[in-house]
Specification:
Length: 431
């Protein structure tokens, strides 16, 4: 249980807050790169700040304050030009650093440009990588953007799904440190829903947890679980999967894996972004993607009820159902919550580290240490995967019901794995 003061300390992310200062030491994914191909200016609210992300006519990316300092015009309606974003109201032009570089009327009256030099919007560093636009909002020099090895896999199909959740970011992260919920929220509850709707049961009794374990490591926390009938030599315990600081879950297998980000919009809103990678089976070639497609997902149905039909929707619904900011002062934590307790302490430690002038855990300063970092996969070997159970399972439910071009591509990749694994099993049986 946390009192209200400590709860606010580790959840608030605005400028000058203890956790806000920690968050500003990391790079954050803010948009699919493909979204700017459709519209070069996008509104972004991140860590309690209102911003606009844009790509100018030269291809340069910028992330600057949303309101023009002249007459308070919304820069979402700005005009991308060769050297920046121009306010449509009076033509003031801002570059990617936020500096005003042109004032058409004012410089006619004062060619020295002294007034213009004093005008600046907030401006933050951005870069494009792996089909995403990333932002850094902290002090210089910026750390390296971590280029995890899964981002660099070439023979693969990718997709991005995005939901806006009206709740604090930490509610999603703590879900990832709570393995025991899976047997109920993703096991018992879906069966209840099927019975309630009169559907044919697909019931497979979930394996209950015998124990859970958590280890702090150089990038965050490794989480482990031991299920009924399993041993500590199984991947779920021996390998585990990571929660990367400050809010990224990575999990999956060679067939498909995913990054899940719980990006703080402000203290009571979160962007839940999932980046899924479907890798081609040995000897197979994945379809070529010119860009990583994306879709926005709904969290509620036409009645206003939270979606509960997919694993990720079940998770998101559990976070939202706790309210905009969970009342941790009213919790009654038990033995299954040791990961949550550990992580809250870890956050407090990072606050102190930043206060002392240091880098929080997982921040990398050289390109060498930040490139091609291999992350653990619990199903690093595919021998135990049943090909009959492989299928494209959409991470979230699109607002318009359209998954875009990914499904047929993912189906092709998965079919390749089914054929490969079936052949491998037949060969094994022959021996």
């Amino acid at each position: 249980m946390l009192d209200a003061t400590r709860n606010e300390r580790i959840t608030s992310v605005g400028p000058g807050t203890p956790m806000g200062e920690v968050m500003r030491r990391y790079w954050h994914p803010v948009a699919p790169a493909a979204e700017l191909d459709e519209d070069p200016v996008k509104d972004v609210r991140l860590l309690g700040e209102d911003l606009v992300l844009y790509r100018d006519a030269s291809g340069t990316l910028g992330l600057i304050g949303r309101v023009c300092p002249h007459r308070r015009m919304d820069m979402l309606y700005g005009i991308p030009e060769q050297d920046g974003l121009r306010c449509p109201y009076h033509g003031w032009l801002f570059d990617e650093s936020g500096q005003c570089i042109e004032q058409p009327f004012e410089t006619k009256q004062d060619p020295s440009g002294n007034f213009m030099k004093k005008i600046r919007l907030p401006g933050y560093q951005v870069q494009e990588f792996a089909g995403l636009i990333w932002a850094y909002m902290g002090p210089a020099p910026a750390p390296q953007l971590p280029k995890w090895d899964a981002f660099l896999w070439e023979n693969a199909v990718r997709e991005i799904s995005i939901s806006h959740l009206p709740c604090n970011w930490l509610q999603g992260v703590e879900n990832s440190l709570d393995p025991v919920h899976t047997e109920w929220l993703h096991g018992v509850y879906p069966e209840y829903l099927r019975n309630k709707r009169g559907r044919k049961s697909a019931w497979i009794k979930p394996h209950m947890h015998e124990k859970v374990g958590f280890d702090v490591y150089e990038y965050g926390v490794i989480k482990r679980r031991l299920l009924e009938g399993a041993s500590e030599q199984d991947d779920l315990w021996a390998v585990g999967h990571p929660l990367l600081m400050p809010y990224t879950l990575f999990q999956g297998s060679e067939v498909s894996c995913n990054f899940q980000w719980r990006i703080p919009v402000d203290d009571t809103n979160t962007i839940y972004m999932r980046y899924t990678i479907y890798t081609a089976a040995p000897g197979r070639t994945a379809p070529v993607q010119e860009k990583v497609p994306y879709y926005y997902a709904a969290i509620r149905d036409e009645r206003g009820r939270l979606h509960m039909d997919t694993v990720n929707n079940q998770d998101a619904s559990a976070w939202v159902a706790q309210g905009p900011l969970a009342r941790r002062d009213l919790e009654k934590l038990g033995r299954s919550d040791e990961g949550i307790i550990l992580f809250r302490r870890l956050l407090e430690q990072q606050i102190q580290t930043v206060n002392d002038g240091g880098d929080p855990i997982g921040v990398m300063r050289t390109a060498e240490e930040a490139t091609g970092i291999k992350l653990p996969l619990e199903e690093g070997g595919v021998g135990g995967i049943d090909p009959a159970r492989l299928a494209y399972r959409p991470p979230l439910q699109p607002i318009d019901g359209d998954y875009g071009p990914v499904k047929p591509m993912a189906d092709q990749v998965i079919k390749g794995w089914q054929e490969y694994l079936t052949k491998e099993r037949a060969a094994g049986s022959a021996h």
